[in-house]
Amino acid sequence: MNQDSLAMREQINQMQQSVTRMQSNLALMRRKLEDLTIKAPAAGRITSLDAEIGELKTRGQRIGQLDMLTGLKVRATLDQYYISRIFPGQKGEVTVNDKSYQLSVKKIFTQVTKGVQVDMEFVGVAPPDLRRGQTLPVRLALSDPTVAVRVPRGGFNQRTGGNWIFKLSEDGTKAYKTDIRLGRQNPDYFEVLEGLKPGDRVITSSYEGYEKMGELELKTKAQ
After folding, report:
1. What pLDDT, on a 0 to 100 scale, did the predictor assign at position 69?
2. In whole angstroms, how far apart are CA 53 and each of 45, 60, 137?
3. HEC profile for 105-136?
4. From CA 109, how far away is CA 80, in angstroms rounded?
5. Do 166 and 174 touch, CB atoms closer than 8 A?
6. Res 151 pLDDT > 90
7. Least enclosed by CB within 10 Å: which of 43, 78, 200, 201?
8. Which parts of the chain are coiled coil (predicted)?
């Protein structure tokens, strides 16, 4: 019984040593497995990845691009005509998925090439799911809001140079050539300084072929 007890203890010690070696080998395999997992230095969104199954990558090799989800900015290019009207802190607005977000001019680049470049930051919450290089419809307030007569942008300006427009008569049967003077503009409207008053109806489509006409007769097309 004493011999059997000593033998059993020896077997238990050997088994414990074997378990210890197995646990050590398992921990080593887990570390090797973790070494195969590529981890980014910060949280963000992967926007490009250059990797294929079975491909060998060396330490320090660039395999992709990670965009940070914080500190997003918008870079806009403006006509150099507006260079004297841009200043840091100027407010702007962008619409993403039918929701408006506020912007503020952070930096103005002094070098003027094809226009004036400015960096704008989001004020408060930024739109979700933005992508690098995505085009956004930014509206930048270059002056204080004012009350003005305006007409929608259209093809008429290409033929008239903004000097005249066809204005409809009160009954809508005719349109007369009317001298106007345009001022400021945005992507949707022209400001009318002279020639029109609120409520006037005008034709804003292309005037190709009507440049020399002073009066148009309008007819309602039969249904």
Report:
1. 66
2. 21, 19, 39
3. EEEECCCCCCCEEEEEEECCCCCCCCCCCCCC
4. 12
5. no
6. yes
7. 43
8. 12-39
**Amino acid (1-letter code) at residue 109:** F
CB 135 within 8 A of CB 95: no
This prediction has a pTM of 0.47
CB 120 within 8 A of CB 73: yes
Which tokens is 81 given? 């005509």
Q: How confident is the model at residue 220 (pLDDT cuts 50, 70, 90)?
A: confident
Long-range Cβ contact pairs of 63-66 (< 8 A, separation 24 or more) = 63/38, 65/132, 66/40, 66/42
Residues 6 or more apart from 199 whose CB is under 8 A from it? none
Domains of the chain: 68-140 (2.40.30), 149-217 (no CATH)
Question: Which pair of tokens denotes residue 60?
Answer: 């320090």
